Amino acid sequence: MRLCAWYLYGEKHRGYALNPVANFHLQNGSVLWRINWMGDTSPRGIAASCGMMVNYRYFLEDTASNSAAYLGTKQIKASEQVLSLVSQFQQNSKL
């Protein structure tokens, strides 16, 4: 889950989220909200994402500012759960 959080939050292409689904939601002003272990146990889900599923949350009053921040300064809004996983990854990673 730590690696997944890093992939979605920290891996970039030209400053934007490397994952195309994450990039889509973040451009539209969402928050990278939650990573669910074994959220998709279908054969496709296991093959594509080791069964993990991600929730993006839209706070309607914040979507415009989140979108502008992402597109302008490439800042990703994420929940405490995701940021905690990212921090754990950074502390333990040898990358």
From TrEMBL:
Note one Pfam family from the annotation. Answer: MCD
Task: Provide a Gene Ontology MF annotation, just one.
Answer: malonyl-CoA decarboxylase activity
Positions of the Malonyl-CoA decarboxylase C-terminal domain: 1-58
GO term, biological process aspect, one: acetyl-CoA biosynthetic process
Enumerate the Gene3D superfamilies for this protein: Malonyl-CoA decarboxylase, catalytic domain
Q: Which GO terms describe its cellular component?
A: mitochondrial matrix; peroxisomal matrix
Q: Which InterPro entries does the record cross-reference, listed alphabetically? A: Malonyl_CoA_deC (IPR038917), Malonyl_CoA_deC_C (IPR007956), Malonyl_CoA_deC_C_sf (IPR042303)
Give the source's domain of life in one word. Answer: Eukaryota
Protein name in the entry: DCMC protein
Q: Which organism is it from?
A: Zapornia atra
